[in-house]
Design a protein that fits this description.
351 residues, six-stranded parallel sheet, binds thiamine diphosphate, 44% helix, binds magnesium ion, two-stranded antiparallel ribbon
């Protein structure tokens, strides 16, 4: 019996908006001018938050903070595609997702200042707590997707994580279950080339991260993660597929962490300045500005006005964060279990 080929696979790479601001028209998703402006404004807000958070941390006004500079298109483009009823599972580097979905800015600052009230999600948002433990929210997202399928609810669970998370057992277990049960879940990996000081080539021997989905029986697609339109389109397609009952999708957004891992890290000790410089010209924000400028949707005056509005919103949020009275210690029990355990009830009573 001659050998037969039992499986072959291909991974598509999607890119729509190039570094000069030109788009591949046939691939361009149907977005109105107003929607494109909202995407741009969300990216500016995310970058403004990021810059201010770094400055506040240096002044001792925030705890450790993980910057998102360079990853704004991956975060805003994906979050923009969601319906309000979808379930959001962020990791620790998803400021752009939170801001795009309307998470209160002062609470985001409060969280990074080390106050647990920063994790109290307003009732109208389906956002799970920030997951700092790498990849452990992937099975949680899969569990919620299972519940949605069981209840025949059209909501989709969406989890964001990094390249490093794809080496975790949680990733593989979650992917396996998502594939077996064809669950309505979208996995969004921001492959920012580094997991603290571990470069991608030490993370995996695979050509792409996207191909890992294929081993679990569902589609993996790679996109230019600095291209807000490609990320938006891939996420929209994946959400549609999940809502149709056609199961999960894994989206690998190829991007770059422009700054240090966190304020507790110095990336200059382990990566070459030339590498960082090469990614500078792929800046997701500049690329979108160039596109909008060409379409008559951007001007210096408009850009300045958007930045001024973002700065004003951030200033107000910082004021609110710093004016928050100290928490009542008993409040912490309210955010743990819906029905307190006997021990929790006793501890709350003692307090
Ligand atoms: C379970 C676990 N192990 C180790 C850490 C320490 N840690 C924090 S971030 C990180 C690297 C994560 O890399 P990646 O998944 O690529 O995400 P990125 O930080 O690049 O956004 C590690 C090892 C952790 N938070 N959780
Ligand atoms: Mg990473």
């Amino acid at each position: 019996m001659p050998e037969e080929v039992r499986a072959t696979f291909a991974v598509r790479h999607l890119s729509i908006l190039d570094e000069n601001g030109n788009v591949d028209e046939p691939l361009m998703p149907p977005l109105s001018d107003a929607e494109i402006r909202r995407m741009y404004e969300a990216m500016v807000l995310a970058r403004t938050f990021d810059d201010r958070a770094l400055a506040l941390q240096r002044e001792g006004r925030l705890g450790t903070y993980p910057p998102i500079r360079g990853q704004e298109a991956a975060q805003v483009g994906s979050a923009f595609a969601l319906a309000p009823s979808d379930w959001v599972f962020p990791s620790f580097r998803e400021t752009g997702v939170h801001l795009t979905l309307g998470y209160p800015i002062d609470r985001l600052f409060l969280y990074w200042a080390g106050d647990e009230r920063g994790q109290i999600t307003p009732d109208h948002l389906n956002i799970f707590p920030v997951c700092v433990s790498v990849g452990t929210h992937i099975p949680h997202a899969v569990g919620v997707a299972m519940a949605m399928k069981y209840r025949q609810d059209p909501a989709v669970a969406v989890a964001w994580f990094g390249d490093g998370a794809t080496s975790k057992g949680d990733f593989h277990e979650g992917f396996n279950m998502a594939g077996v049960f064809r669950l309505p879940v979208v996995f969004i990996c921001q492959n920012n080339q580094w997991a603290i000081s571990v470069p991608l080539q030490r993370q995996t021997a695979a050509t792409t991260l996207a191909q890992k989905a294929i081993a679990y029986g569902f589609e993996g697609v790679q996109v230019d993660g600095n291209d807000v339109f490609a990320v938006y389109k891939a996420t929209t397609d994946a959400l549609d597929r999940a809502r149709r009952g056609d199961g999960p999708t894994f989206i690998e957004c190829v991007t770059y962490r422009m700054a240090d891992h966190t304020t507790a890290d110095d990336a200059a000790r382990y990566r070459a300045p030339e590498e960082v410089d090469a990614w500078l010209k792929r800046d997701p924000l500049i690329r979108l500005e160039r596109f909008m400028d060409g379409k008559g949707l951007w001007s210096t005056a408009y850009g300045d006005e958007v930045t001024e509005r973002a700065v004003a919103a951030i200033d107000e949020a910082i004021r609110q964060m710093e004016a928050a009275p100290p928490p009542d210690p008993t409040e912490m029990f309210a955010q743990t279990l819906a029905t307190p355990s006997p021990r929790q009830a006793r501890q709350a009573q003692e307090l």
